[in-house]
Amino acid sequence: MQDGNASAVSAGEKISGSREKGLNRVLEILEFLHTTQRAIGIGDLAKGVNAPRSTTYTLVRSLVDAGLLEMESDGNRVYFGKKLYLYGMDYVRGNDLLRRGRQEVDNLSRETGETSELCMLQSGRYTIVHASPGTRPFRISSATGLQIPLPWTASGRLLLAGLERTEIEGMVSDDDLVLPDGRKLRLDDFVADIGKAEVTGYCVTSGLVDAYTKCLAAPVFSAPGKVEATMCLVVPIDTSEERTGELIGLLRDRAARLSIAA
Amino acid sequence: MQDGNASAVSAGEKISGSREKGLNRVLEILEFLHTTQRAIGIGDLAKGVNAPRSTTYTLVRSLVDAGLLEMESDGNRVYFGKKLYLYGMDYVRGNDLLRRGRQEVDNLSRETGETSELCMLQSGRYTIVHASPGTRPFRISSATGLQIPLPWTASGRLLLAGLERTEIEGMVSDDDLVLPDGRKLRLDDFVADIGKAEVTGYCVTSGLVDAYTKCLAAPVFSAPGKVEATMCLVVPIDTSEERTGELIGLLRDRAARLSIAA
DNA sequence: TACACTCGTCTCTTGTAAGAGACAAAATCT
DNA sequence: AGATTTTGTCTCTTACAAGAGACGAGTGTA
C-alpha cells in the first residue's frame, strides 16, 4: 500500500548521469516551470533540468501538442498550458474539501480582513493550496502553490499530528530546521510542539517565517484523528491577546465545519 | 514554425498496436480521467486506454509519486492530484486573459442572471474554459472543461474567424456537422456563418445544442483580427428580440474590454 | 567581416523501458 | 467450499526512445 517505497526517498537525484526516462524528464520540466513561475526558452529549460537539448525539444513538442504546455507567441519560450488548467479544475470538482476550503478561506479573510490560507501536505511538503490576501496596507507574502519547510509554520505542526517520530524525521531535513533568521530549531522541540498542537486542537507560532507576523492555524480532519488540511490566519505579531483569541475561536469553528463532510 | 506537423494530423490512433511511448500513455491516461470525471481502478484504467496492465501499474505509480495523480483512500482507484491543481493555478496566474475573463464571466452571469461562459480553442477543439451558472430555475447544462463540436456553437463560428476554408475543414470532422437532434449542417453554410460572424462582430445560434436555448457570443481579441476567446450567454430560445439585443450589447462591451490588454 | 553565441532539426547507436506473461493473494460469485 | 475474476508484483526480451553530436541558419558584438 504505497508505503515508503524505494523511489520516494526524497532527493535521490542519482548524480544526474545517463539515460533518463522520458516521463521523469517531463515531471522535472513541470516542476521546474512551477518554480520559475514564468515562460522560459527551451534551451534554458534543458539547462534547468539538465537534460540534453535534443531530448528536451522532443519532449516539449509532445507536451505542447498535448496542450499541457503552451508556446509563447515568440515561438520559443514555453509555460503551462490550458490542459493543465482543465485538469486542475477537474481536481477541484472532485475534491469537496478543497472546493469548500477555498470558499471558507475567502470568507474568512473577507470577514476578518486578515490574510487567510488553506494548507495541505503535498508529497511530504507543506503547501499553501489557496490563499486570500486580506486588507492590511502591508501585504503579507503568501502565494498559492508556495512550498515552505514544515517547521517554519503553525500548520506544519498540525499536519504532522499523529505521526511517529521516525516518520517526522523522514519528512524534515536538517535545512528545514534552520529558520529564515538563521536560528536553528531543535528537532525535539519541534516534535514536542506537534504533540502539544494535537491535544490543544490549534497552533500559534510567532516570528518564525518573519519577525513581524504570527501564524494561527486550526486542523481540518478527513477522518477522526486524520489531519487532512489546515486553515490559518497570518496576522501582525503585535495583535492583542484578546483579538488573537477571537480569531482562533473563529478559525477553529470554520475548520471544524470543513471537517464534517469528509 | 509549429505548422501542421506530422503528429498533429488529428485522430491517427495508429490502430493501437505495439510498443507505445510511456509519455503518450500518460497523456492518454490524463485525457481518459478527464472524460470519466471520477476516480477509476487501475485495471479499468488500463482497459480504458487499452494499455497493458503491467505498464499501467508502473506509470500510475510514477504519477502518484509525483503527485499528478492521487490514490483514493480505497487504495485502488486513482484520479487527478494536487500537483495538477497547482500547475493549473500557475497557468491562471500567468494568463491575464483567463484570469480577467473568469471575472467578467462571473460578473456577467450575476448581473444578467443568465448562464455565461468563456470559451477558447484547445488543440483545435472548442472548450468551455469557465462557466457561471446563472439563476434560472432550470439549469442550463454547461461545465468547465466540456468539449463540444465547433459547428454546434455560436462561439465556434467566431473562434474560426479569419481561417482559410481548408484550415476550417481540417478542424471539423463529418461527425461534428451532425447536430444533437440529427440534422446535418452543410459545411458551406458553416463557413458562410463564420464569415458573417466575423464582419458583424457577434454571433447568435438558436436551438443547435438543444431545442430550448439560444447562444449569444462575442469575440475577445488578443491582437487585431486574432480571436483568442469568446464570451457567451446561453438563454432560453423564447427570449424577446429586445432583451436579446440588450444582452448582445452588454456582451460585446465586456468582450471588448477584455480584448484591450492583450 | 570575422567570432561566438543560441536555436531548431536531423541522423545514428545503444541502453533500457514497454510489454507479455506467469504468479500468489484477495475479492467476488455460485 | 470450490470456481472465477481481479489485483498487485515480478521476470525476461526486444523494439525503440533517449542521447550524442553534427549541421545550417539566425543573432548579437567586437
Brief summary:
The structure is a homodimer of 262-residue chains. Chain A has 262 residues and is an alpha+beta fold.
Describe this structure in words.
The structure is a homodimer of 262-residue chains. Helix content of chain A is 42%, strand content 19%. With 262 residues, the first copy, chain A, is α+β, with helices and mostly antiparallel strands. In chain A, the strands form 2 sheets. A 6-stranded antiparallel beta sheet of chain A has the order 5-4-3-8-7-6. In chain A, strands 1-2 form a two-stranded antiparallel ribbon. In chain A, helix 2 crosses helix 3 (53-66) and helix 5 (96-112) runs antiparallel to helix 9 (241-259). The longest helix of chain A has 19 residues, at 241-259. The interface between A and B is large, with 51 and 50 residues. Chain B binds a DNA duplex (30 and 30 nucleotides) through residues 1, 18-22, 25, 41-43, 51-55, 57-58, 76.
Secondary structure: elements and pairs:
The structure is a homodimer of 262-residue chains.
Chain A: H1 22-36, H2 42-48, H3 53-66, E1 69-71, E2 78-80, H4 82-93, H5 96-112, E3 115-122, E4 125-132, E5 147-148, H6 154-159, H7 165-171, H8 187-200, E6 203-206, E7 213-223, E8 226-236, H9 241-259
Antiparallel strand pairs in A: 1-2, 3-4, 3-8, 4-5, 6-7, 7-8
Helix pairs in contact in A: 2-3, 5-9
Chain B binds a DNA duplex (30 and 30 nucleotides) through residues 1, 18-22, 25, 41-43, 51-55, 57-58, 76.
